[in-house]
Request: fold
Amino acid sequence: GTLSDLESTLLFETSKAFFSARTQKDVVEIVMRTGMNFLGAAGASFTSFEEWKSPLSIGSMGEVPSGAYDEWLSRLSHPATRQACRKCRSREAEAGCILNQEISNPYLKVFCLPISEGQREYGLINFFFHFPLAIGESKRKFLRTLSDHSESALRSIRLWERGNSVFQNLESSIARKDFSFYLADLSKKIANEFHFKSVFYWAPENTEY
Reply:
């Protein structure tokens, strides 16, 4: 079915927030807040899958299964947690969940939402509840749509970062007066892209870059 008016409005507001996001961390935190409000969750956290990259430094929001909060928070970035969450396919759990083990709250429920961009899996957003989970198909459809929108936002940020990196490299090349080398490399790329035999460029010798 289609989204309700309330869900459509919430998604519109979330999309505006995505437009203002400047980092992957911003996007994930927007999804955490939106999901908490939409589901009525007591709290939320983020389990990163980025073993070989710098993990997104995201803490938690609201209530989490905290007997010893610092110890529990460090568990989110533990390799065993990442492996267990990556292999988990239920996305719903109770006391047996690795995020809720050895915690003095056996009634806490967990629902997880995957966050990814293309083939890159960032991790899972974990929503915590003090009541039985009742996430019907309508709510799941909204969450899937929210996840799709977050993927678009993450892709836009990645492309912006890539473009910004290219611009900074160009500025650095100009500062080192390597502009002629940059033009030569650019000419080669243009020739390869458009299947030209050669590309000629001209740069006055006295031009200051």
Summary: Residues 137-175 form the longest helix (39 residues). The mean pLDDT is 78. DSSP finds six helices and five strands in the chain.
